[in-house]
Amino acid sequence: MRKRKKRNMKYLGIFFRLGGYLMRNLIWIHRWSKHKDKHTLEERYQALSKVILRVNKGLHMDFHVEGLENIPTDTPMIMIPNHQSMVDPLLLFPYISSPMAFIAKKEAEKVGPVRDAMNLLDSYFLERDNLRQELKVIRSVIQSLKEGQTSWVIFAEGHRTRNPNFEMNDFKPGTFKIAVDSHRPIVPIAIYGGFRVLSKKYRLKKYPVQVHFLKPIYYEEYQGMKTFEIAKMVEDRVREEVEILRKKDEEYLQELKQKKRKKEKKKEPVKQS
């Protein structure tokens, strides 16, 4: 129970750190969520994106993005990022212009703003121990992709990385049944650095966050493969890129330290002879 309360407070921390602007928009999101049929999915997505862009700015994230040319623009896709932190979903909104939806764990539904935002995007909460509900969600997502309604973001690790070194968990093969049955492209995404944003361990003016969209894997490439084979292929590509981003992250932090030292040195009083 204590862990659950602590986790929920961290979710709420994202919102309450950002002051009056966000509180006003939380009310707006809640109202739209209750009457979402009055607006198209495109209208809801664009409006929510504007709020999230402001949230990202308020959280002082310094984005380093690569691979924007790898995002398909003519078809819905299945985005598969690694999962290091609760802010990971927010990192994608600045770069995905058409509607996308999410599959999230059922526990997140207890956090009002998360529930409202998910509802606006026609997203789903997944009950891990409820096989019937899980299959129903998978079928609904497959149908959505076939109809070309929206792209989907799925964190194939199943939960956030709990390893102190932020090493990835294995990707769950069941996730990729959605790709096999919908024939839509898979876009692997490597993320690094979001774990600092809400942590008390780090105190930075700007938090370096890296997002790298890897080359899409089209149906022709994974056709005929088993779901566990697809999972391993996508996982290997993301894992390899995450390690590259980890090294770049060390370089970014080193640069920040050097800039800080130079700034402090300039502030030092000049010694008179």
Molecular structure report:
It is a single chain. By secondary structure, the chain is α/β, with parallel strands linked by helices. It has one domain: 3-Layer(aba) Sandwich (Glycerol-3-phosphate (1)-acyltransferase). It has helices at residues 2-16, 19-34, 41-58, 112-120, 131-146, 177-182, 219-222, 227-267; strands spanning 61-66, 78-81, 100-105, 124-126, 151-154, 186-192, 207-213. A seven-stranded mixed sheet has the order 1-7-6-2-5-3-4, with helices on both faces. Helix 2 packs antiparallel against helix 3 and helix 2 packs across helix 4 (112-120). The radius of gyration is 20 Å and the shape is globular. It starts with a helix and ends in a 6-residue tail after the last helix. The mean pLDDT is 87.
Secondary structure layout:
Layout: H1 2-16, H2 19-34, H3 41-58, E1 61-66, E2 78-81, E3 100-105, H4 112-120, E4 124-126, H5 131-146, E5 151-154, H6 177-182, E6 186-192, E7 207-213, H7 219-222, H8 227-267
Parallel strand pairs: 1-7, 2-5, 2-6, 3-4, 3-5
Antiparallel strand pairs: 6-7
